[in-house]
Amino acid sequence: MLENIWFNIEYGINHVLDINAYDHVLFLIVLTVPYLFKDWKRVLLLVSMFTLGHTLSLVLASYDLVRVKVSLVEFLIPITILIMAVFNVFTAGKGPQKNKVGVLFISTLFFGLIHGLGFAREFKMLLGDADGKLALLVEFALGIEIAQIIIVFIVLFLGYLIQTLFRFSKRDWVMVVSAVVVGLVIPMILNSEYLA
Question: What is the pTM of this model?
Answer without folding.
Answer: 0.90
